[in-house]
Amino acid sequence: MNASSIQDILQGAEVLVAKIHADQDLPRVVRNIPQLLAEGEQLRNRVSEDAPSREQADVHASILLGSRGVDLPKLSQRVEGLPSSIAFGPLETIQPTDIEGFLKNERQTSLLAVIADTAKTTQEEVDTFVIQAQKERWESEKRKIVACLEHCADTTAEQRQQSFIDTLNFTLNNSTSYRPRDASLLSVSGAPVRARLSPEELQYSKALTDHNTALISGSLDSLAIVKNMSHVAEQLELRDVASLWQLLQSMQKRYNSDDDDRLALVVGARRFLETKHLTDLRATVHGNLNKAFLGGAPGVAHLIRAYLNVKPVPPTHPGEPMVDGHPAWAMIYHALRCGDFACAREIAMKSSMFDLAGKFEECQRDSHHRLSDDSVKALRLKFARDLSGGASNPYQRVVFGVLAGCEVPMDRSAVASEIEDYLWIKLCQVISSTAMPRDSNTITLRELQSLLSEEYGEAYFDAYQRPIQYAYVLLLSAQFELAIEFLYRFDPHKCHAVHIAVALSQLGLIKHAKNGQDPLLVKDDSGSYLNFPRLITSYTLRFEHDEPELALEYYFTLKDKYESVWIQCVKELVLDTKEFTKLLGKRNADGGIQRGALDKFVQDRREIVTIVAEAAEARGLNEEAVGLYDLGGQKDRCVELLTKLLALQVTQAGPEGSKRSQLQKMATQLATFQSTPCLLLLIDLMTFYDFYYLEKNEEALDLLRRLRIVPLSTDEVDTMVDTFCGFSEQVRRVIPDVLVTVMNILTEQYKTIRRPKTTALSLIPLLGGGSEKKLELIKSQANAIIKYAGMVPYRLPAAVNAKLVRAEASMA
C-alpha cells in the first residue's frame, strides 16, 4: 500500500473523528492491539462467509427499516456509540463549574428517584391488596366452616365432629388457591358434605314457595303467610310452635300501620289470650262433666258456673255477693278473662252492682274495650279509697285494675297462677292506660317490655330450657325482634325464627336495622332492631349451593324493603354456584330464551342479568359474561367482550371441547343474530387457523385471499396497508401472528418444492405449475409480506420481524 493511500485513510479517520465530536458528546473508545485484532477478525468472517447472503440480509434490512424512514448509516453510528454499561450513572465526570452537566445529572437523579419511589409504592399497594384478599378469603372460609358446624344435620356428636373435621381438612388443603363456592365440600371418603334439610325446614320452604308463587300471581295477599305457616306447624304436630303462629295470626288482624304505636298489636295479643282462656275453660269442663253439671243452657255465664263447679273458689268474706252459688267477683273476673263484657254485665246485674254493670256496657261500645276518662277517674278514686289495701277480694282488685288501667296488688296464687293470666292483666292495664295521663299507677307498653325482657329476663323464665315459652312471652308483649333473635340461637328452632321473621317482615311488623353490617339484633334507646338481611343470608348459607332455586325463594323476601341487597344476594348466588342456566336462563341456538328461576320473581330479567354479567367479567369469568351480556340484551358489550376473547384464542390450536372451540361456537351463534365486521373477521381467522393446524395450507391461503387482509403480491401492499388502518385493535393484535403463519406456510411450500425431484414431482400439479415459477411466486409473496410488515403503522414485536426476515432469508 503506497503512502498516498495511507495518508488518505488517516485524513478520512480524522474527519470522522471531527464529525463525531461535532454532533454530540460521546465517550471515546480506546482499543488495544488484541481488541483491534479480534474486531478485524470478526469483520473478516462476516464478509468472507456467505457474502451474498450477508448482502441480501442487508438489503432486506434496508427495505424493512428504510420503509419506515430510518437512516441506516446514522443508526449504525448511534448503536456503536451506545455505552455497554447498564448502571444508571453519569455518562461523564462532572466538573464543579459544569452547570449544564450538573443540571443534567440532577434531572436524571430526580427521574430515577421518582421511578424508585413509584416502584416501591406500587409494590406496597400490591402487597396490601394481596394480604387483604387473603384475609377476606380466609374470613369467607371461616364463615363456611362455622355454618357447616352450626347447621349440620347429623344426629350424633361424633358425626358433627367428623363433618367439621372433613370441612376443615378440605379448606386447609385448598387454602393456597381460591375454592369456588360451587365446589361441594368433600369428606375423607370423597362424598360431598351436603346439608340435609330437616322435615320442618322442608315443610316451611314448600309453604314459602307456594306463598311467593301466589303472591306474585296476585291471587293472594301478604296476610295469608301467617295462616300458611300455622298450617305447617299443625301438620308437623308442633303444638307449642303452632301456638306462636296462632298468636301472630290474631295480632296481624289488628295491626296498626304506625310502627311506633303497637297498641293494636297488644289488643290482638289480649284477644288471643281471652280466646285461649275460653278454650281452656271448655276443655276443663268437658273433661269433668260429672262435676261440672254444665246443663243444656248455652252461654259463657253457664260455662263459667260449670268451671267453678270443677274448680270452686271460696268466698273471701261472709257478705260477698254470690251468683248461682259462686262468688260474683270470681265469675266477673273469668267473664272478663274470656273477653265477654256482656256476660260480665249480666253477672253484675244479678249481683245488684248496677254502677259496675254500666261500666261494662261502656266498655262494650269502645273498640278497644276502654272506659272514658271520667269513668276511669271515678274507678281509680274508688279503688284508692276502698280497695288499695291487701285485705279486699283479690278478684275485685284485679277487675278494678283492668278497668281503670292501674297497678294493683295481686294474689298470684289465686288470680295469676299462670304466666298467661299475669300477661293478660298487664296487657289490659297497658291498653286502658294509653288514653290517660301518665302517673305512678299506670304502666306503658315500653315499661312492660322492659319488665319482661330485662328485669325478669331469660333467667327468670328459664329460657334456655323452655325457649318456646320465652319467645311466647316476648311475642305477647310485641317484642318481635327479641323473640326472633332468641329463637335463632337454637338449632332446632332456627327455621321457626326465620319464617316468623319472614311473615312479620311482610306484614310490616319488624323494625329493621339501618346498616347491613350490624349484628343480628341492634338495641338502642328507641327500641330493638332486627338485621333481616343478615338473618336470611345466614339461614340460606347452608343449602344455597345444593338448592340455589330454594335460596332464591328466601332472597325474594328481601326484594320489597331491600332491593339493592336482594340484587346483591342474587348476584353472589349465581356467581358462587355457577348455575347460570338454572338461575338466569340462556339463549338457545334458534335465538329463543330459555327461562331461569329468576324469571319467577321479576318481569324483566335484563337489569339483574347485566349486573351479574358485569360482576362475572370483573372476576375473570369472561366466557360466562359473554353469554350473560347476550341474555341481558347488551349486544354491544357482548360483542366487544367476545372479540377480546377471540383475539386471544384465534392463533391457538383448539380441539373439540376446548376453550377456543367453545368460544368459536359461541361467536358463530352470536354472529347469526348480532354481528360486526370485527367479529366476522375474527371468526374467519379462526377458520384460517383451523385449516393451518389441519395442514390444509392451500385452503388456508385461499381463505386469506378472500379476506384480503394480508398481501400476497407486491401490488396489494399499499391497499392492504390502508385496510389495516381500518381494523380494530383486537384484529391488529392478531395480524403479526397471521403474518408469521402465512410466512411459515410459504416456507413449507418452498421447501417442499426444493426437495429432490422424486418427491416434488407429485406435488407440482397441486402447486399449480412448474417448480421454478412456483418458487418465484412464493418469493414474491414473501417479499410482499416483508414490505407490508415494514409499512403498516403498527409496532410489530421484534420477534415477529426476526421470524419474517429469517423465513425470507431461508428462501434465498
Explained architecture:
It is found in: Nucleus, Nuclear pore complex. The protein is an all-alpha fold. Among the domains are: 100-170; 263-459, no CATH class; 708-812, no CATH class. Helix content is 65%, strand content 2%. Strand 5 and strand 6 (593-594) form a beta hairpin. The chain is elongated and about 155 Å long. Residues 153-194, 256-260 and 758-769 have low confidence and may be disordered.
Query: Which value, in Å, is the CA radius of gyration?
Result: 46 Å
How are the strands of the largest sheet arranged?
A: 1-2
Fraction of residues in β-strands: under 5%
Question: Tell me, what's the shape?
Answer: elongated
Number of strands: 6
Mean pLDDT figure:
81
Q: Multimeric state of these chains? A: single chain
Helical content stands at 55-70%
Tally of DSSP helical segments? 38
Low-confidence stretches: 153-194, 256-260, 758-769
**Cα separation of the termini:** 37 Å
Biggest sheet details: 2 strands, antiparallel
Keyword list:
mainly alpha; 812 residues; elongated; two-stranded antiparallel ribbon; structural constituent of nuclear pore; single chain; nuclear pore complex; 38 helices; two-stranded antiparallel sheet
What is the strand and helix layout of this fold?
Elements: H1 3-23, H2 33-48, H3 51-66, H4 72-80, H5 99-150, H6 157-173, H7 199-217, H8 224-235, H9 239-252, H10 263-287, H11 289-292, H12 300-310, E1 322-323, E2 326-327, H13 328-337, H14 341-350, H15 354-365, H16 373-387, H17 394-404, H18 419-433, H19 445-460, H20 467-476, H21 480-487, H22 494-506, E3 521-524, E4 527-530, H23 532-540, H24 548-555, H25 563-577, H26 580-584, E5 586-587, E6 593-594, H27 606-618, H28 622-631, H29 635-649, H30 659-673, H31 677-693, H32 697-707, H33 717-725, H34 729-754, H35 757-760, H36 764-767, H37 771-791, H38 798-809
Antiparallel strand pairs: 1-2, 3-4, 5-6
